[in-house]
Specification:
A 5-stranded parallel β-sheet has the order 5-6-7-4-8, with helices on both faces. Helix content is 57%, strand content 11%. It contains 22 helices and 10 strands. The protein folds into 4 domains: 91 residues, DnaA, N-terminal domain (GMP Synthetase, Chain A, domain 3), CATH 3.30.300; 171 residues, P-loop containing nucleotide triphosphate hydrolases (Rossmann fold), CATH 3.40.50.300; 64 residues, Helicase, Ruva Protein, domain 3, CATH 1.10.8.60; 87 residues, Chromosomal Replication Initiator Protein Dnaa, Chain: A (Orthogonal Bundle). With 469 residues, the protein is of the alpha/beta class.
């Protein structure tokens, strides 16, 4: 047992050391050093991280580096899983959280790496593989209408909802349908994230190639922009995007967008942009119902070629009610356990293998959704909420997020505090302070790109709560 533990520690340290060499000490210290645990088995390498925000960020920015580090150490390519373990939150240090917030805020300052190459990458999702249910039927119908022709009645189409519910799937599906169109002239389309659009715009300014940038976007037949809430508080980028949007729309072409929140709930967007966003079709995707969750699991099991009985699918669907990524993650973990033991997947195995997973992710993901929605409303990032910054806006957002966590999740004060990188007393005081404001419906004030904004505390909380579904 001691030898096994030594080998595990050696693999953990070797992979992290290789990763540090690839991405540099600054990024490694901010995202991996203190609160990441690597576990290696025969089928997968699992990176355990303290919260869903970090999981999403490193998945979007460091997946290729992580895969390369794993291959260098293990001598072969292996799939990687990024899992949330809230117990690791206690290892986070204040300076690490602040560095994360700073890096997120500055992520648009650098050049867009490989922007042209990214545009040519084959998109992985199709409309045919989207599992339709009552909570996403309207969004799917609108997406298929947009995919059917160069111009639909839904322009722009704005899809919003929590993380992992299928927004990206629909946007990519629309683009793949445009790419596959055979009726006449092929449609010029582009799928980008809000971050990538911002990076490309800044790079065009720096290199004096703004006209080339504008020509690339304004001549499109279809522009799909994911995570459009990333434009919050970026005035110059918002102005450029507004002109891009107007040019595409005036030419009778299509714009499709996705965001974590309704346009009016994304803080620090200009009124002109909000007005344009809501002038078309705005549709929300909610968490899938039980029957849809079962169908999602059944399709995923077929995709990864793992025989799973209906009783196991029902068990997973019953206990994981959040997003699609968590459903699929649980199924992948279960298939790995079965492969390691060379055994069929059974209900007993699922109950045992997923018990820890369910305990860790059930409330953590709910809190992750809360902080995503709160951050979008105030025009900041979840990293700001985790940081030690005490500006009026960040402090208010942190109080609101903690209050909602107490009201809408079973998490205790210590658990909320660990999740957000704070201590127990800070969480208690934050909730108590905001509850006092609610008791007298006091006005609260925060800063936006156009100046200070204020609202009665109860109305503010009600507005944000509506987005929790």
């Amino acid at each position: 047992m001691a030898a096994t533990g030594d080998r595990a520690r050696a693999s953990h340290e070797a992979i992290l050391a290789s990763l540090a060499d690839r991405i540099g000490p600054q990024k490694f210290n901010a995202w991996f050093k203190a609160a990441t645990r690597v576990e290696v088995d025969e089928e997968h390498v699992r990176f355990n991280v303290p919260n869903p925000f970090v999981a999403t960020w490193i998945g979007n920015h460091f997946t290729e580096d992580m895969e390369a580090a794993v291959q260098k150490v293990t001598g072969r390519p292996q799939p990687i899983l990024i899992c949330v373990d809230t117990g690791l939150s206690r290892h986070c240090r204040r300076h690490q959280l602040d560095t994360q917030a700073t890096q997120v805020a500055r992520s648009t300052a650098g050049a867009a790496r490989g922007a042209s190459a990214k545009a040519a990458v084959q998109l992985r999702h199709s409309l045919e593989s989207f599992v339709v249910g009552p909570t996403n039927q309207l969004a799917y119908s609108a997406a298929t209408a947009v995919a059917a022709g160069a111009r639909s009645d839904f322009n722009p189409l704005f899809i919003h909802g929590g993380c992992g519910l299928g927004k990206t799937h629909l946007l990519q599906g629309i683009c793949n349908a445009a790419a596959a169109a055979t009726n006449g002239r092929s449609r010029r389309w582009r799928y980008v994230s809000g971050e990538q659009f911002t990076n490309e715009f800044i790079q065009a300014l720096k290199t004096k190639r703004l006209e080339e940038f504008r020509a690339t976007y304004r001549r499109l037949d279809l522009l799909a922009i994911d995570d459009v809430h990333f434009l919050a508080a970026k005035r110059a980028t918002q102005e450029e995007f507004l002109h891009t949007f107007n040019s595409i729309d005036a030419a009778g072409k299509q714009v499709v967008m996705a965001s974590d929140a309704h346009p009016r709930m994304v803080g620090q967007l200009t009124e002109q942009l909000v007005s344009r966003f809501i002038s078309g079709m705005v549709v929300k995707i909610d968490a899938p119902d039980h029957a849809t969750r079962v169908r999602i699991l059944r399709r995923r099991a077929t995709t990864i070629n793992v025989p799973v009985g209906e009783e196991v699918l029902e068990y997973i669907a019953m206990h994981i009610r959040g997003n699609v990524r968590e459903l699929e993650g649980a199924l992948v973990k279960l298939s790995a356990v079965a492969a390691l033991g060379n055994e069929p997947v059974t209900l007993a195995m699922a109950t045992d293998a997923l018990s820890e997973h369910l305990a860790q992710t059930d409330s953590a993901l709910t809190l992750g959704d809360i902080e995503m929605i709160v951050a979008a409303y105030f025009g900041i990032t979840p990293a700001d909420i985790h940081s030690s910054r005490r500006t009026r806006t960040v402090s208010l957002a942190r109080m609101v997020a903690m209050t909602l966590a107490r009201r809408h999740t079973p998490m205790s004060y210590p658990e909320i505090a660990r999740f957000m990188g704070k201590n127990h007393s800070s969480a208690v005081l934050a909730v108590q302070r905001f509850e006092k404001l609610l008791a007298v419906d006091a006005n609260v004030t925060w800063m936006t790109a156009s100046g200070p904004r204020s609202a009665p505390s109860r109305k503010l909380l009600d507005t944000i709560q509506e987005q929790l579904g």
